[in-house]
Amino acid sequence: MSDKKIKKIVLANERHQVLMLPKDAVFLTVQTMPSVPGPGIDVCLWGTGERGQLIERHIGIFDDGDVLPQLPTTYIGTFQNPAQTKAFHVFELTPLRRMR
Question: Which residues of 42-77 are buried (b: 16+ CB within 10 A; e: fewer)?
Fold first, then answer.
């Protein structure tokens, strides 16, 4: 039997953030929701994963016209803050490992 669950993570209002998530976590979507308790808007990331070993997962949020970092990236989704006319794009960033 699987312990896989869908989980919501509220993202910080920062360009780059590190989340501790299960090693097998799969991102599903990113959307905005009203903050609880309000007022305001939360940016929420949904994903699945089983309980187990947690690893660092790096998330980047970029505005239209931003230059993406020269790291491998995986697109997660795009959201629009209802209070603004801009769209923001969310990527998982894969940090480069240093050679030993």
Answer: bbebbbebeeeeeeebbbbbbeeeeeebeeebeebe
Please give the model's pTM, rounded to 2 decimal places: 0.84
Residue 43, beta-bridge partner list: 11, 32
What residue spans define the domains of the chain? Answer: 5-93
According to DSSP, residue 82 is labeled T
61 vs 53: CA distance, rounded Å? 25
pLDDT in tens, 58-79: 999 999 889 888 888 899 999 9
Please name the helix (run of DSSP H) or strand (run of DSSP E) that holds residue 14, with its range, or none. Answer: none
Query: Could you tell me the two tokens for 51?
Result: 């309980």
